[in-house]
From TrEMBL, chain A:
InterPro entries: Rieske_2Fe-2S (IPR017941), Rieske_2Fe-2S_sf (IPR036922), Ring_hydroxy_dOase_asu_C_dom (IPR015879), Rng_hydr_dOase-A (IPR001663). Gene3D superfamilies: Naphthalene 1,2-dioxygenase Alpha Subunit, Chain A, domain 1, Rieske [2Fe-2S] iron-sulphur domain. GO terms for molecular function: 2 iron, 2 sulfur cluster binding; iron ion binding; oxidoreductase activity. Residues 42-127 form the Rieske domain. This is Rieske 2Fe-2S domain-containing protein.
Automatic annotation (TrEMBL), chain B:
It comes from the Bacteria. Keywords: Aromatic hydrocarbons catabolism, Dioxygenase, Oxidoreductase. InterPro entries: NTF2-like_dom_sf, Rng_hydr_dOase-bsu. The keyword Oxidoreductase applies. Pfam families: Ring_hydroxyl_B (PF00866). This is Aromatic-ring-hydroxylating dioxygenase subunit beta. CDD domains: ring_hydroxylating_dioxygenases_beta. GO terms for molecular function: dioxygenase activity. The keyword Magnesium does not apply.
């Protein structure tokens, strides 16, 4: 299906302080987003630590129409290839992860490919003789994505040959990926402890808009904060009140003033984070054994510097959001205009005590699980928004907060933590991508 | 194990299931020992609730917070009521745990009614039971979904 929505029409859907509801409800807009945003931006694929050995692969989707494989070859190089046989088009791997010993072998006619995608063998090849078919033509290989890039183990791919290199695209927001890795005494992180997959029955943009919407936590998460607080208050004075769960849950009830103070910072291509000097993760207990390892690796001053850059959520628009201070990430995978899956992955800080990973996993379970007490209330409001936007009462949603007050700096825009700077940042990118000329 | 009355064990599991059917979390929690835990792993054959992610892993403190949250008027995901029907079968005595608790395994099919929709969950339970003066208490309940790695939808209640 080829959609025909003119540039003028697309442009009219995003005003400086209002968005048209079609952005969330129109399947044609969704298809165009997949083509022009997800089909051009650098999309997070996975982390190199997910494919440690030769032949290890991790399969995922860039969009609902672009299944890909991240795989490590004999030389240790990581590739991102389309998960499609060059012959008839069958997907070569079906499992999300695994190991292919010698070669990818198509389950249909047995074409086999090296780990870098080069076609090695076609069964009964003689039948191609004299037909003009050339086994050495690269069009018969598993196709690589237009570009792939890796930064400190985080592997991204883009379907656009015109996209600038990964580092340029990440821009100033790269500081957060650095900070996440620097929180390891060895400067390296690795995926650990499995994944949570959470199905969301709504448009993919809701979660991106919610990340740094700091006007929502004290409303949406009031119940769990109060439940935790009331319970702790009900304990006898002798009882121990210090629970990691409380340290994680209670800051979701932080005041408007606290969130305002944490600030929001926006970058080109839609990236943004809230926090910096402080965030709702800033008051976590520093475990003594971890601190010791950090000081040994970096010295006291650099260690303090690393801790003091404390962000809440960083969005690498549109597919990846990371929590540097928690060491987990969420990956967005759109499926349809009203459906997407969020994956939560946790990271081990190499050289840190295992208690750090356990806290990360505790956070992922408490906050991001589909059976938690935080994520489900977020999804509930997205879902209600998805249904409410079908209403004919109005065609628009608004985002005026602190409009006109953002401060443009050299490579970034900064503003108050309770403003809509995050919205302005991502919808500026939305317009640029949807125009088709974002990298022109 | 010949001295264990399996009918009494079955009856205990059925009563527990009936409390979750309502759901009556206040009474359900009281079935657990003070150090009792509830675990829903996120991977098949998961060995560890702390070094690997789980969908749920609650001790009595977290159960207490969850119970309060469940009835909180501002927990919008709980605005839609939830009711369940638990069917438990294949109940077997599976020996003793390292701590000497009675290990009981079973299969479950649960249909949940939530947001005007019925959802199906299936898998196996593993109960670690402690004998009390007048019956049994749960030291540990493990819920093995048949699809723990699949994308999950919101689950607002214990299974």
């Amino acid at each position: 299906m080829r959609t025909t929505i003119s540039h003028e029409e697309l442009d009219s859907l995003v005003e400086p302080t209002r968005l048209h509801k079609r952005l969330y409800t129109d399947p044609d807009i969704f298809e165009l987003e997949m083509e022009r945003i997800w089909g051009q931006a650098w999309i997070f694929i996975g982390h190199e630590s997910q494919v440690p050995k030769v032949g290890d692969y991790f399969a995922t989707n860039i969009t609902h129409k672009a299944p890909v494989i991240m795989v490590r070859d004999k030389e240790g190089k990581v590739h991102v290839l389309h998960n499609r046989c060059a012959h008839k088009g069958a997907k070569l791997v079906e499992n999300r992860q695994g190991n292919v010993r010698g070669a990818f072998r198509c389950p249909y006619h047995g074409w086999s490919y090296k780990h870098d995608g080069t076609l090695i063998k076609i069964p009964n090849e003689a039948g191609y003789e004299g037909t003009g078919f050339d086994i050495n033509d690269t069009c018969n290989n598993m196709q690589p994505v237009a570009q792939m890039g890796s930064y400190r183990g985080f592997v991204f791919a883009t379907l656009s040959a015109d996209a600038p290199d990964l580092k340029t695209w990440l821009g100033g927001a790269i500081d957060c990926l650095d900070n996440l890795c620097d929180r390891s005494p060895e400067g390296e992180v690795e995926v650990a402890g499995g994944v949570l997959r959470y199905e969301h029955e709504c448009n993919w943009k809701f979660i991106l808009e919610n990340l740094n919407d700091t006007m929502h936590p004290m409303v949406v998460h009031q119940s769990v904060v109060q439940a935790a607080k009331d319970y702790i208050d009900s304990l006898p004075a002798s009882a121990t009140r210090e629970r990691s769960e409380a340290e994680i849950i209670l800051p979701f009830g932080s005041s408007y003033e606290n969130f305002e103070e944490s600030g929001i910072t926006g970058f080109p291509y839609g990236h943004h984070y809230d926090g910096g000097k402080t965030s709702i993760h800033a008051k976590y207990t520093v475990m003594p054994a971890y601190h010791e390892a950090m000081v040994k690796a970096y010295g006291e001053e650099r260690t303090r510097d690393i801790y003091s850059f404390n962000t809440h959520n960083t969005l690498y628009y549109p597919s990846l959001t990371i929590k540097t201070a928690v060491q987990n990430i969420r990956v967005v995978r759109p499926i349809a205009v009203d459906r997407f899956v969020v994956e939560t992955w946790s990271f081990r800080l190499k050289g840190a005590p295992e208690e750090m990973l356990q806290r990360t996993l505790l956070y992922s379970r408490l906050i991001n699980s589909s059976a938690g007490m935080v994520g489900p209330d977020d999804l509930e409001v997205y879902r209600r928004t998805q249904e409410g936007l079908e209403s004919t009462a109005s065609d628009w949603v608004e985002f005026h907060r602190q409009y006109g007050k953002d401060e443009q700096q050299a490579d970034r825009v900064v503003g108050g933590g309770t403003g809509d700077l995050d919205m302005r940042t991502q919808y500026k990118a939305w317009k640029a991508y949807m125009s088709g000329e974002v990298f022109a | 194990m010949s001295d264990i009355d399996i009918r009494a064990i079955e009856d205990f599991l059925y009563r527990e299931a009936a409390l979750l059917d309502r759901p009556d979390l206040d009474s359900w929690m009281q079935l657990f020992t003070e150090d009792g835990t509830y675990w829903m792993p996120a991977a098949e054959d998961q060995t560890d609730p702390l070094n690997h992610i789980s969908h749920m892993y609650d001790d009595r403190v977290m159960m207490e917070i969850r119970r309060r949250n469940f009835v909180h008027p501002r927990a919008s995901s709980k605005d839609s009521g939830v009711r369940a029907s638990h069917l438990i079968g294949n109940i077997r005595l599976a020996g003793k745990t390292d701590r000497g608790d009675l290990k009981v395994t079973s299969n479950f099919h649960v249909v949940l009614w939530y947001r005007d929709e019925q959802r199906v969950y299936a898998g196996t339970y593993e109960h670690h039971l402690v004998a009390t003066g007048d019956g049994w208490a749960i030291r540990h309940k493990r819920v093995n979904l048949i699809n723990p790695e699949a994308p999950q939808r919101t689950l607002i209640i214990y299974l």
